[in-house]
């Protein structure tokens, strides 16, 4: 190893040690725990078994040992994936026009609009979830407003439903969609649109054939940035979803708390990690193949 | 060319986009503004308006639990910001401005790892790991929280520092070396001062990120080690009083203040 490389390693080493001890290393312990037996009250018994992984997807009948799908677990997994996809869709539908609007503002005003998107982005997620909670609760702003309009007689129960979790996640993750979309649209060469209009393209055609294909990396980046934290969401479903509308993050928490099944919790954590890694890898492949095309 | 299009037709206009955008901004800010307004509510309720007052700020201020949680949050955030920005500075010096070395990709992946792994997974991993250490050593102090926070703050400190280093001019350092400065003198007098805004920005981001953390703190903390966010999370389970609004508004103010400072620090110069 030459001196430059050695210095590079030496300078990076303290940060690497911190990250191994305080973040990456313990993940290996989780992987190991997912193959152990649960302890009587909490913790684990040190004997190898694949029972925890089996129980993620299936359950055995206590009496006759027949195996069936673990409906409760699959419902929670499906709800997590469904709500995360819907959150991505909702934030895209709202976020794309917003990013477009910011990018097409005159430069002096653009910075202000961007700053307005950035403030919620950096504001504590818990605070924003709490803020949306106050709006959608039964005596909250939304229900009062609808009642004042005379559209409804009694408050609609939004809180503690899947809809509330969806509203909350779309609300807290919207800036994550807008920022990469803005970055992509900002680099867009608007002369292309002019050329398309000169060639008698309609607005819809311009949007579909010119704009969307070119800003696609931004769309993919925004979707990943929203989908990944949505799937691992814990705070928002816990506050807005109540006890019944759990997502996978809350279900993992339950295994380490009241559920007292650490191996099952560990297996679920690993499953979540795999799904997230698969999404990130897909993202890397899509963007790197697009980079090659653009060269 | 633009004279030819000097009629209302704008090439960048998309029907309905501006309306949706304005609506999005309204939707983003209405909940936050409502929360801020109700923090000044004189009544006991978060739904009914009882006049303007600082009552809930006073109540939060006098609440011992809140005071302790605030001090704890600040101690952790300051320690994490200092540790993360120091180690990130070293790592940035090691990974920029030199030929890419073998294993540098590994260093990148490790540094950015906290951004990729879902927080709940890291939280569970640290719970298991620290529970074993707590049992073995009997130590249950703040060090666990500081260690965990420092670790997930590293990427947030690293990115602005690296950006600053990559944009830096090498000629000043060469000039210093030409004038017989030792490598240490060059670093101390030239490189470090030039890096300072990046380091300050990194430390500030780390501070905000640490101060905001809920999930990892909730899993790692020992009994009686609530930080402000975990205290608030606990409160949200019970009847919510405007006290939570007051704490949230204070935290929001702090975030906006630090963000503005961050933007001023990282704004393009010259």
UniProtKB/TrEMBL annotation, chain A:
Source domain of life: Bacteria
Concerning PROSITE patterns, the annotation shows:
ABC_TM1
Can you tell me where the transmembrane regions are?
Answer: 12-36, 83-102, 114-136, 156-185, 264-284
- Its name, as the record gives it, is ABC transporter permease
Subcellular location as annotated: Cell membrane
Family statement: Belongs to the binding-protein-dependent transport system permease family. CysTW subfamily.
Protein's organism:
Primorskyibacter flagellatus
SUPFAM superfamilies on file: MetI-like
Q: What is the lineage of its organism?
A: Bacteria, Pseudomonadati, Pseudomonadota, Alphaproteobacteria, Rhodobacterales
Q: Which GO terms describe its cellular component?
A: plasma membrane
UniProtKB/TrEMBL annotation, chain B:
Which positions fall inside the ABC transmembrane type-1 domain? 70-265
Q: Which InterPro entries match?
A: Bact_Polyamine_Transport, MetI-like, MetI-like_sf
GO terms for cellular component: plasma membrane
| Primary location | membrane
Q: Which SUPFAM superfamilies does the entry mention?
A: MetI-like
Spans through the membrane: 12-40, 74-94, 115-133, 139-159, 190-211, 246-265
- Enumerate the subcellular locations listed in this protein's record, separating them with semicolons: Cell inner membrane; Cell membrane
Keyword check for Cell membrane = yes
Q: Into which family does the record put it? A: Belongs to the binding-protein-dependent transport system permease family. CysTW subfamily.
> What is the official name of this protein in its record?
Spermidine/putrescine transport system permease protein PotC
Q: What organism is this sequence from? A: Primorskyibacter flagellatus
The taxonomy runs: Bacteria, Pseudomonadati, Pseudomonadota, Alphaproteobacteria, Rhodobacterales
